Amino acid sequence: MAQPAGLTYEKAGVPHLKGDPGYNRKIVSLIRSTHRSGVIGNPSGFAALFDLKKLSLRDPLLVTSTDGVGTKLELARLRGKHDTIGIDLVAMCVNDVITCGAQPVLFLDYYATGQYEPSAMFEILRGVTRGCKDAGCALVGGETAIMPGFYGSKGSHSTGQYDLAGFCVGVVERKKLITGRTLKAGDAVLGLASSGFHSNGYSLLRKIYGREQLLGEIGKKLLTPTRIYVKPLLKLLKALPVKGIANITGGGFYDNIPRVMPEGLTAQIHAAQWPVPKLFESTAESGNITPFEMFRTFNMGIGMVLMLDPRYIVAAQKQLLSDGISSWKIGTVVPGKKVTIDGI
User: Fold this and answer.
1) Among 27, 29, 38, 222, which is most buried by a count of CB atoms within 10 Å?
2) Residues of the chain with pLDDT under 70
3) Structure letter (DSSP) for residue 57
């Protein structure tokens, strides 16, 4: 039957992706490359299934997290480099899940943009799959939303505006759940090295640095993907009794460490105990940012914090270094309500 002339969904700017066999074949192969034992179903279907019995857990708890990448996306768009931003997306979710001692098992993504740009979309998905492999979780689905007129056009950039959201499901044995409830005064605070600014504070960074700087070496460093701590920490948790884990994301030290502290306890941080990367120092100088604001906004070179008995610090550092992660004893659990940082 002849189709009536006139408007179509495609003419409105939304391609018929689900009916494109070439597009489906391309993304399905990437999605399948992340799959692990327990995944059930067709990656191009309506929903995904997972068989928890494959994990051989006696009393499993599901642990969930969702997050995005924020305005680091604008830096990726400015530089026309989209192959690592998906790693950031996965990292922001799985690094939250590991704070409970859980292993991430499933990941889903949401990609929204104003126009169909297959090259950028595929590069983003490649980053997501790399992140999932680094975290040991399966990419089991997602959503691509083409929304003409809602997101901005290319302008002077190589791509139009887009947004990303990630969703992660992890699993942990109930008796191995990490909550911070057993923390006590005198426990040690161990800081794990970040890979840079991770994915927080980029609205401020984009105020500090101009377009030329963001297109240059500084922008290249700022686009370094967020470190994924999952596999090294899962290995460490099998060897040593960790009492609390805090992911140093938006809110820095002041907002994130208290989230795992029992009432009446806090942390005293000794900032001289680790080498703050030079880019953090130059950022503070360029933006005339106070030390308090720096530690409240950025991770300052510490992407994850562990709380444990002081006698296990050396063993933990040795284990982490074997997985390529430097760490420092940066503080102590003390009575109090607010995180304190020496000299601030």
Assistant:
1) 222
2) 1-5, 17-21, 23, 42-44
3) -
